[in-house]
Amino acid sequence: CSDCHAVHGREPQHVRETERLAGPVFDHAQPPTRLCVSCHSEVAAQLDLPSHHPVREGMLACTDCHDPHEDRRATLGARTALCAECHQDVTGPWIYDHAPVTEDCGYCHEPHGSVTYELLQTTQPGACLSCHSLPLMGATHDPQAFVTRCTDCHDAIHGSQVDPHLRK
Q: Over the stretch 22-33, which tens digit does the pLDDT of each residue have?
């Protein structure tokens, strides 16, 4: 307990103040976050990437998504349910679902930070082609489609009410 809590610490929950700070970039982060990144340097590095959740700015804390006292393993769909607490606009319900969205946001997105737009694991069309077959897609697309972003045409990537090809 004393790794994170101090008996005579300040409220809330007597979170221990950390001496080791993951650089000046976390000056505005909430105290629990500063404590977390003092040990989790790989996450601190991800939060410093161009596309990131606003944790280092103090708008979110690590404990908004992670409960340090619970089991770290997650069941299928658990991460999506957690993400949906804030990102309700992309969760549906949809008439035409995009299956990865209902299973795990982590199929496409990095939760802490990424060098790509919208926390994507890789740029488009690569992110989409990791699941969607190039021979199958090539039969229905102009060859130029593979040098642009898939979301230029398929803009309802999380789900659609009107189009099975996930267009708005």
A: 455 688 888 888
